[in-house]
Amino acid sequence: GTLQLGGDDTAADVMNVSSWGVAANPVNSGTWSAYVGATASGSVPVWANGFMATAGSLIGDAASIKYYSPDMSGFSFGVSYAPNTDGNTDDQGADTGFNNVFSAALKYSGEMDAVSITAGAGVDHAASPNVVGATTGGDDSVSKYNAGISLGMGGFGAGISYQGLDYKTSATAKVDNWTVATDLSYSVGQHSVSIAYVHGETNTGTNANDRDGDAYQLGYNMDLGSGVYWNAAVSKFKIEDNAAGNTTGTEADFTAFETGVGVSF
User: Fold this and answer.
1) pLDDT at residue 8 in the model
2) What's the CA gap between 211 and 156, in Å, rounded?
3) Residues near 92 by Cβ (< 8 Å), separated by ≥ 6?
4) Is 93 left (phi over 0), alpha (psi -120 to 50) or beta?
5) By CB neighbour count within 10 A (0-12 exposed, 13-18 middle, 19+ buried), where does 187 fall?
6) Mean pLDDT value of segment 144-155
7) What pLDDT is stored for residue 36 in this prediction?
8) What is the 3-state composition of the chain as percent helix, strand, coil, each rounded to the nearest 5?
9) pLDDT above 90 (res 50)
């Protein structure tokens, strides 16, 4: 297996099986927060904590220790531990991050007849979430779950993935997010095309911050040879809150077109 020390995402995020399609900037990706604004959804940022994305971790890149097993008849697993997210100790200021974060994931890759299968599931668990605290009515531990499966046969591909997070931040506030993403793709020769759909819901107990989101994407990729490719996608996003009327800071409704040339090596 492989032992790693240093700053990286949790094992559950690294081994995540998500539904991407062929677009270079998948609709099921935290990258889209740049289009909506990092705080455009109130107290919980768009695409944070499992809203509108099925990949991601509780802590992002953090100093940690990780172990990834070798492949065992298609099965592999990973585990990781991060002591904290902000590096603060008792005499260095307020500690407001997730501490003692344990993560584990299990993954399978193999073939059954003519069908290729990749499936996996993982969990991030913060044993000491100092962003909340039992004294204020918040949960004294936090867990984030993900699962996904991807199938391929000939030039066809399909996938579905999920991520969920639910915990109290105080006696009256909470973070309750879940997202499901699906994709269908087809490849022939140097051409690949895909369609993807994402639905997410987030609930904090405040109407303006309780949101439903839907996103659609049509993606295309052309292999130009020697590791060079051309990629294009058109994406439609619509995020609505539960407040009466339009809450400017928490809603989004837009269409984006992207194209570019990339190199893979």
Assistant:
1) 84
2) 33
3) none
4) left
5) middle
6) 95
7) 60
8) 5, 55, 40
9) no
